[in-house]
Write a structure and sequence with these properties.
Elements lengths: L1 H13 L22 H5 L19 H19 L14 E5 L2 E8 L2 E8 L10 H6 L15 E7 L4 E8 L17 E9 L11 E3 L5 H12 L5 H31 L2
Helix pairs in contact: 3-6
């Protein structure tokens, strides 16, 4: 009996005492517990000088000044606008306008002549810096004129081909009045294209007039003149294109003002 108690006491003394429990390590903060990213990036209302009008767009004091500038610019452009309606081209040409593209159509004895031009990028570069430096303060700036490239298409009723002549205004020939009469436009390229097809084929031969015999070139110019495409027509096309360009410019300013002002 005494021996059993002694053995139990010895065994109890040999067992180490249990370690005290340590507090659990702190848990990592879950990403989902953080504030939403959008909430961190969203500016406070009224910050950056913005004003809300219900459209969801940004409106600043700079926008307000911009819109006022555009309003003044539109007013001034309308003051100097020469043609409230597009001028007509003499010779029985009918006009079709689709945005910035215009077509003049005419029928002559079994032929259909179409002249197509686009006013985009039709304003030639302004005068050089030397001319601007020589200009006196009281002198008026030269009028802006639109001199677009234009394409003449001649279609005969009994053929399936269209004769296409690509024309343009050389910069040194426009606006020189009082000089010896010369052609104010030139033919750059001539080709045949299938009649009625919207897309022309690059595989069709194209004649470049830079290396063309002058006699052949003169006959091509006479060919156009006989169909009403001469210097008088070219002058009137400039007037028409300038009026259309100015009209579209004012419309662009009005659209830009409405966009900035959110109307």
């Amino acid at each position: 009996m005494l021996l059993a108690r002694a053995l139990r006491a010895a065994a109890a003394a040999a067992v180490p005492a249990p370690r005290p429990l340590l507090p659990p390590p702190p848990r990592r903060r879950l990403v989902s517990a953080l504030p939403p990213r959008a909430a961190l990036l969203r500016p406070r209302r009224g910050s950056a000088g913005g004003v809300s009008c219900g459209c969801g767009g940004l409106h600043t004091e700079g926008d307000k000044a911009f819109a006022q500038f555009l309003a003044d610019e539109i007013k001034e452009e309308k003051k100097i606008q020469k043609h409230k309606a597009l001028p007509k081209v003499s010779g029985g040409w009918e006009l079709e306008v689709h945005g910035t593209e215009a077509k003049l159509l005419r029928k002559v004895a079994g032929e259909r002549i179409t002249v197509t031009f686009n006013i985009n990028n039709s304003i030639p570069p302004s005068v050089d810096e030397e001319t601007q430096e020589d200009q006196k303060p009281d002198e008026q700036e030269p009028d802006i004129t639109s001199t677009p490239n234009f394409v003449v298409e001649v279609v005969k009723d009994d053929t399936k081909q269209t004769l296409v002549l690509d024309c343009h205004y050389p910069e040194d020939e426009v606006g020189h009045e009082g000089e010896e009469e010369s052609d104010i436009f030139t033919i750059r390229e001539v080709s045949f294209q299938p009649t009625g097809e919207a897309d022309w084929k690059d595989t069709n031969y194209t004649l470049n007039t830079d290396s063309l015999d002058w006699a052949l070139y003169d006959h091509l110019m006479d060919f156009l003149a006989d169909r009403g495409v001469d210097n008088t027509f070219a002058d009137e096309l400039i007037e028409l294109s300038t009026a259309l360009e100015h009209q579209e410019y004012i419309k662009f300013l009005e659209d830009l003002k409405s966009f900035v002002k959110c109307q």
